[in-house]
Specification:
Butyryl-CoA Dehydrogenase, subunit A, domain 3, 407 residues, Butyryl-CoA Dehydrogenase, subunit A, domain 2, Butyryl-Coa Dehydrogenase, subunit A, domain 1, single chain, 3 domains, four-stranded antiparallel sheet, alpha+beta, three-stranded mixed sheet
Length: 407
């Protein structure tokens, strides 16, 4: 895909901040610290409003350009947790509020989302649910001009630092009149884009799902302690508890009962944007391994001259190019209105699993130095594993592809 001088200049602005954004990334990982000062520097670039219309404070860019700039962030920033928090903030809240939110919700929340002053969390997964979104137990009971939310969420991205949450809950077992008026669901259960939305959906009518904006500090909403995890440690996670949490009906994102449609749209963007960041990270890792394989000598020769090492580097290159091609080709098809359910699942598999192989190869190429924490290579391997789990596990993606090709 070709990009204009203006698009390349925008990406270059992000890349130029690489050293600043990466400073202290090993300490952030070790201390499990969200780098708020780096977040504030990202705010200055306008990255949080890339695809949001200018009238709401965004840059009004299309999906491929947004992906291209986010790939630049992944390339430049060694703090993968910060990059993950940034892409999650953008796609989990900015994208659905712009597409489905009322004029009032857009006016009230999009400016803060665009400039990053309001950090957003994504509350979809439940402790016993995983990828089985339609099996969630969180409910939203109508009460006059409010809904009362009860239930719990886990793995809430950005939860400990968020000021606004997008919370998904069941509002009933039948399609409401509002959802019917807006056309209901675009796809049958199990044919949506996201891995999370692609689990078993048969136990409840998908039109019972609704997305709500819930502000931090709302009575009845409580957060658990940050969850310690294997990788992406500077991107904080927590549990979220809802106990009689009253939310105005006007805070529903889209029609009541149209939450599956909202989630499906979000998951398409999440896969394409989050794994564009991953491609940037893989590209930077590849360059670092090429340089090391050229400069590191063993037995009187650069290690890159040994076929076993060269093959590892070649596979890393194939992984970068294959992932980029699948992601950007899928984005182009999505923008043109084509059905991309299979393409998205394949793109997610290719990018996430290529990233794990790439990071493991880097550890092997760097040898003992790759195993040491001070070089940051082992951290990249820990980070990479998460990509095979979030946005729908690799197993879910394979199950989806099999179903969609008629098995």
């Amino acid at each position: 895909m070709e990009f204009s001088d203006e698009q390349r200049a925008l990406r270059a602005t992000i890349v130029a901040m690489g050293d600043l954004l990466s400073k202290g990334h090993l300490d952030n990982d070790r201390e499990r610290r969200f780098p708020r000062e780096k977040w504030d520097r990202l705010r200055e670039t306008g990255i949080f409003g890339l695809p949001i219309q200018r009238r709401w404070g965004g840059l009004g860019l299309d999906l491929p350009t947004t992906m291209y700039v986010l790939e630049g962030l992944g390339y430049a920033c060694r703090d993968a947790g910060l990059s993950f928090s940034a892409s999650t903030h953008l796609v989990s809240a900015g994208i659905p509020v712009q597409r489905f939110g009322s004029a009032e919700l857009r006016r009230r929340y999009l400016p803060g989302i665009c400039d990053g002053s309001t950090i957003c969390g994504h509350a979809i997964t439940e402790p016993g649910g995983g990828s089985d979104v339609m099996g969630m137990r969180t409910t939203a009971r109508p009460d006059g001009d409010h809904f009362v939310l009860d239930g719990s969420k886990t793995f809430v991205s950005n939860g400990p630092v968020a000021g606004l949450f997008v919370v998904y809950a069941h509002t009933g077992d039948r399609m409401g009149a509002e959802a019917a008026r807006t056309g209901g669901l675009a796809e049958r259960p199990g044919e949506g884009a996201g891995g999370a939305a692609g689990g078993r959906a048969g136990r409840r009518n998908p039109a019972s799902l609704t997305a709500f904006l819930v502000e931090a500090g709302t009575p009845g909403l409580a957060l658990g302690s940050p969850l310690e995890k294997m990788g992406l440690r500077s991107s904080p996670l927590c549990e979220l508890f809802l106990d009689g949490c009253r939310v105005p009906r006007s805070h529903a994102v889209g029609a009541i009962g149209a939450g599956f449609l909202v989630l499906d749209h979000v998951m398409k963007w999440e896969i394409l944007c989050s794994f564009s960041v991953t491609v940037g990270e893989m590209a930077h890792r590849l360059e670092r391994c090429v340089d090391y394989a050229r400069s590191r000598t063993q037995f009187g020769s650069p290690i890159g001259s040994f076929q076993s090492v060269a093959n590892l580097v070649v596979e890393m290159k194939i992984g970068v190019e294959s992932s980029r091609r699948w992601l950007f080709d899928t984005a182009a098809r999505l923008v043109s209105g084509q059905n991309v359910a299979v393409d998205l699942a394949i793109a997610k598999l290719v990018a996430s699993e290529s990233n794990v192989r790439s990071a493991l190869a880097a550890v092997q190429i760097f040898g003992g130095y790759g195993y040491l924490t001070e070089y940051g290579i082992e951290k990249e391997l820990r980070n990479a594993v998460a990509g095979t789990i979030y946005s729908g596990t690799s197993e879910i993606q394979r199950q989806r592809i099999a179903a969609l090709i008629g098995l």
